[in-house]
Structure formats: C-alpha cells, structure tokens
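Memo to structure team: turn this sequence into structure tokens by end of day. - J.P.
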Amino acid sequence: MQHDVETRRSNLAALVERYAANRTEFIKPTYGETSLRVEFLDPLFCILGWDVNNEAGHSIYTREVIHEANVTVDDEDSAHANKKPDYAFRLGGETKFFLEAKKPSVNIVERREPAFQARRYGWNGNHMP
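Reply from structure team:
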C-alpha cells in the first residue's frame, strides 16, 4: 500500500511539474479544453484512483466516470434543456459530483459563468446540500 501511495505522489508531482514547466503555453487561448482534459485532468483523476478510462470494463450504468454525461437543467430559454458536464463521478452507479472543465485561459475568478454552470449541474443533479 505504501508503494502505491508513493507512486501516486510521484505521478502527481510529475504532472504538476509538467504543467509548471510549460504554463506559458497552456494559458494561451489557443490551448483548448480537450487538450487540458486529456493531458492533465484525466491523468489527475486516475492518480486519485478514479477509473476515468473504464479499464474495469463496466457497463455505462456502473462505470465510475462518465464523460459528457447528460443532465437536464432548467433553462431560461426553454422549460428544460439537456446539458453535458465534462465529467460525472459515480460510486455504485450513483453520481456523486460533476466536474466542468475550463481551459486555463478562462478566468474563473472574475467570470461568473463557469461557477454558475457548475452550480446549475449540481442543483439539477440534486447534489446541493
């Protein structure tokens, strides 16, 4: 078990170092969200122990991570709209939380839309306290 923890720590440190070494490239608007997900978010959640790539071969109903899951949300323009959070993390077939990725050039501190989007997924997925 200790070996596994040390391996995860080492992998996490390498991921952070890779980002830090090339940060100026990653924060350019041309670096996209899909690249961020493939290069950093997927590996991060694998390091944290999530089966991001469904290596266990579970069905769509029992896998731990669903990419671009469907969530029906209340929408201003229509009664309901289907939206797709980037990740739905599940345990025992039940979604525990959503993750909405944004490319590094998006200022999530000053722009309210990303926070609203994430909260809307949580609210409509019944994940708010």
